[in-house]
Design a protein that fits this description.
heterodimer, A: mainly alpha, 1% strand, B: alpha/beta, Rossmann fold, six-stranded mixed beta sheet, 10 strands
Chain lengths: 318, 237
């Protein structure tokens, strides 16, 4: 298991040396989608709160960073922390509103709030340039290093994704993470143990919003362009599909799920216009055959295969 | 007289329209075990739910070492020092044994008796299985975990709702030994039990509930000797 991890890490580090630019860019996009989906997974998988508005955090931080650069001429080194901070504060406010409910109510409030932002992005053209989107952006140059080449940007994203997933894993593995899972499974029991359930959920909501904002920054650095679709329901729903398809409540699941969504989007959309339909079929198939997602499903399948092997081994020995 | 560990005075509680606790009053003295007994539906669990704040008392007062907790939300009551071992155990099935305990950890200013190691010491089975999901434990182990989890909060008053329910006889005896040990360390306990024999062995004081009313409150000896009282309010056993 540990050696498998090292192999994956080695392949990822070496990838730009043997893969073409197209593939390097594709993997960069998967990394960005993976951070986005993993941050949503904190809510869906670990807090048991299904949000249909997670695009809000990706979109707002991306728009903010673009707007600060284009309209105020603020450089990346300052616009990035401002975008992250403002988006995180917004997550605090949205969480405060949405967490008055759980279940369907929570889902509808998150959806409504993100639709408001989407509408704003479309209509408030003085700031967002409406349907034309904001273009003419650049990538940052950390320590004077240009990120304009596919491989340089790839390595930048690789570092960010490693830090992001690591921090989220640490969050889940901490005592707070255990409390969070407790509030998902038995909120009432947690309150009888002295936990303020709403507060636990709110902190998680804000943390998820922060990593959503981080993915938004990478998103705008990658595309150097932003359009209201980044705030759309489709964007939120795709991330949710990725989380559920890959396996919510697991660390690896949303990464695999995000990869599937990005790959389908990029490959299939080149041949078929209605690529969404294929995504739908894949999703239905996953839910039919592995209801709790690919990662837990494959794990179970593997356990069954190796479990079967053991008795036959014993039989062949005797 | 010393301050009572836990006292209820004229507590009324309602589930929607139906009146389930009628002016319930009783008091638990520090370091003692009070057995709360009664038939099914007498209001024992409701009483516990009212103390921990799940079902707020309509009126009356509930005091923990003299401080009123009747109008507080459940998490605030827990922080004041009420620990609950819930009926049916209710461990967090998807969390590991260790996580179940860590989640409940709470230190106290006046000395923290319970933490991970002391709990593992009295429940060695839990230590063996610390990395296992709590849902995969046996019923008896889950009950130990539920007790350990409540202790992790270092409660000043421990409420135990039918800790022997559904356990094999030797496990019931084990639970009994643990409760006796906690008492010997000075833990104040309210014990709700269907197992009257076990309850009468352990308790110092007894409160009998019938259809939401206190019908008897007194020392355990008075109950033990009064077969008629037992038959009337608890049925035969």
């Amino acid at each position: 298991m540990r050696s498998a991890r090292w192999i994956v890490a080695l392949v990822l580090v070496a990838l730009p040396q043997f893969a073409g630019e197209f593939y390097v860019n594709l993997i960069s996009q998967i990394f960005i989608a993976a951070i986005f989906a993993s941050s949503l997974n904190l809510l869906v998988g670990y807090a048991g709160l299904t949000s249909l508005g997670h695009a809000s955090y990706l979109g707002v931080s991306a728009y903010l960073s673009a707007w600060l650069y284009l309209k105020l001429g603020i450089g990346h080194w300052l616009s990035a922390p401002i975008a992250l901070a403002v988006t995180t504060v917004m997550a605090g406010f949205f969480g405060w509103i949405a967490l008055r409910a759980s279940g369907l109510g929570f889902l509808m409030i998150t959806l409504a709030l993100s639709q408001v932002l989407w509408g704003l992005a479309y209509r408030w053209s003085a700031v967002t340039n409406g349907d034309n989107g904001l273009s003419g952006l650049t990538r940052p140059q950390p320590f004077g290093l240009s990120l304009d080449s596919a491989s340089a940007f790839y390595y930048f994203t690789l570092i960010v994704v490693a830090v992001a997933i690591g921090m989220m894993a640490k969050f889940i593995g901490s005592p707070f993470g255990a409390a969070l899972k407790g509030t998902r499974d038995q909120p009432r029991r947690m309150s009888a143990l002295g936990h303020d359930v709403r507060r636990v959920r709110w902190i998680t909501f804000v943390y998820a919003g922060f990593w959503g904002a981080v993915s938004g920054l990478l998103y705008i650095y990658y595309h150097k362009y932003i359009h209201p679709t980044s705030l759309s329901l489709t964007n939120s729903a795709e991330a949710l599909l990725g989380v559920i398809a890959g396996g919510s409540g697991t660390l690896v699941g949303p990464i695999i799920g995000a990869a599937i969504v990005v790959l389908l989007k990029n490959y299939v959309s080149a041949y078929v216009e209605r690529w969404n339909m294929l995504l739908g079929f894949v999703f239905v198939a996953i839910v039919l055959f592995m209801p709790d997602g690919l990662v837990p499903g494959v794990r179970r399948l593997w356990a069954r295969v190796t479990g079967r092997r053991k008795p036959t081994d014993a039989a062949s020995n005797s | 007289m010393a301050t009572e560990a836990l006292s209820l005075k004229g507590v009324n509680a309602l589930y929607g329209e139906s009146h389930v606790l009628h002016g319930v009053s009783f008091a638990l003295q520090p370091g003692r075990i009070l057995a709360l007994l009664g038939r099914n539906g007498a209001g024992k669990t409701t009483c516990m739910n009212t103390v921990v704040g799940f079902l707020p008392a309509r009126d009356g007062d509930i005091r923990l070492f003299g401080e009123s907790i009747a109008r507080l939300p459940p998490e605030a009551i827990a922080r004041k020092g009420i620990g609950l071992v819930p009926q049916g155990r209710r461990v967090f099935a998807s969390l590991t044994v260790r996580e179940n305990l860590i989640v409940a950890a709470r230190s106290r200013k006046d000395g923290t008796r319970w933490a991970l190691e002391p709990v593992f010491e009295i429940f060695p089975r839990l230590k063996e299985r610390h990395a296992q999901a709590a849902g995969s434990l046996s019923g008896g182990e889950q009950q130990m975990l539920a007790i350990g989890r409540a202790l992790m909060g270092n409660p000043s008053v421990l409420l135990m709702d039918e800790p022997s329910e559904g356990l094999a006889p030797q496990l019931v005896a084990e639970v009994g030994r643990i409760i006796a040990r906690l008492k010997s360390e000075g833990q104040s306990i309210v014990l709700v039990e269907q197992n009257v024999k076990l309850a009468l062995e352990l308790a110092d004081d007894v409160v009998l509930l019938n259809t939401g009313r206190v019908v008897f409150a007194g020392g355990v000896d008075a109950v033990r000797d009064d077969q008629a009282l037992i038959t009337q309010h608890l049925g035969v056993f």
